């Protein structure tokens, strides 16, 4: 399918409405230490928002569970990360799942390999997590997607291994009762994201895509995180802007990206792109304000 360059029109009203529709029901990500800085999530996020809890290597499981419990008690849907490479073995995995369910009523999980180079034990990838059976009975399971490839999975470039893994997970999605979605690494350019989504559909993938979007942040902050996270060719969007040194400290918002994706989604309602997931790289309160303003249309 040929791509169309969806740019914002002079009349922003309809476009703003499309963006609001795309962002409605979005999710956002926190870490225990950033969550601790939020007095009350209900003051900044819409009730019932799905909140991913990023599990960084070295974070005690007690802090993860406490954050999930707090979110549940405040009326939000906690979705903790389960990075395979920081989990020693099946026993530890089952212990974590049991504690999350029992102490925080966790029903949703993001399963991923994780960015750690050396696994802590016998687990290495999200397919092992799925095959373990530990998540049987979960209402929702999300998996990672990489519109611009992933050098950890495909060291030589391309996406052969990534695609094979996604097709394996597609088959799993057809036999599980859990709702599934692909949540992507953040990127900064709509065209490659749209092309990737279309290629997945052509390959037979039907799992919805929750598009990873970097929330508002200073340009230098975004460049730092983009390089650290292995963002691909779309990094040039930031690099082009960074040539103007006066803009390095100014906030960079994902407005253009969201507008183009929303226009494409409006024109192609059957697209796999279903929702937006925010990475609050400039702070969760800043991102939450952006969400609230966007939802006003």
Automatic annotation (TrEMBL):
Name the record gives this protein: 5,10-methylenetetrahydrofolate reductase
Oxidoreductase listed as a keyword: yes
Keyword Oxidoreductase attributed: yes
Lineage: Bacteria, Pseudomonadati, Pseudomonadota, Alphaproteobacteria, Rhodobacterales
Keywords on record: Oxidoreductase
Species: Pseudothioclava arenosa
Domain of life: Bacteria
Record GO terms (molecular function): oxidoreductase activity
């Amino acid at each position: 399918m040929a791509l169309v360059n969806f740019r914002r029109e002079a009349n922003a009203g309809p476009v703003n409405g499309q963006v609001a529709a795309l962002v409605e029901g979005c999710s956002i990500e926190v870490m225990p230490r950033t969550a601790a800085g939020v007095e009350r999530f209900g003051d900044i996020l819409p009730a019932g928002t799905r909140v991913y809890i990023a599990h960084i290597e070295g974070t005690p499981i007690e802090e993860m569970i406490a954050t999930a419990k707090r979110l549940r008690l405040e009326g939000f849907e906690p979705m903790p990360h389960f990075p395979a490479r920081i989990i020693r073995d099946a026993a530890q995995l089952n212990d974590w799942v049991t504690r999350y369910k029992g102490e925080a009523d966790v029903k949703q999980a993001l399963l991923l390999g994780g960015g750690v180079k050396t696994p802590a034990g016998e687990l290495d990838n999200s397919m092992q997590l799925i095959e373990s059976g530990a998540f049987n009975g979960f209402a929702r399971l999300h998996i990672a997607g990489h519109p611009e490839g992933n050098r950890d999975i495909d060291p030589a470039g391309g996406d052969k291994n990534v695609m094979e893994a996604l097709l394996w997970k597609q088959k799993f999605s057809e036999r599980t009762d859990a709702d599934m979605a692909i949540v992507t690494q953040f990127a900064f350019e709509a065209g490659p994201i749209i092309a990737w989504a279309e290629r997945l559909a052509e390959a037979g993938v039907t799992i919805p895509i929750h598009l990873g979007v970097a929330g508002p942040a200073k340009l230098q902050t975004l460049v730092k995180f983009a390089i650290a996270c292995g963002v691909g060719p779309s990094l040039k969007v930031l690099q082009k802007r960074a040539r103007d040194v006066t803009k390095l400290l100014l906030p960079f918002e994902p407005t253009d990206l969201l507008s183009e994706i929303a226009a494409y989604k409006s024109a192609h309602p059957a697209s796999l792109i279903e929702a937006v997931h925010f990475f609050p790289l400039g702070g969760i309160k800043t991102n939450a304000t952006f969400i609230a303003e966007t939802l006003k249309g």
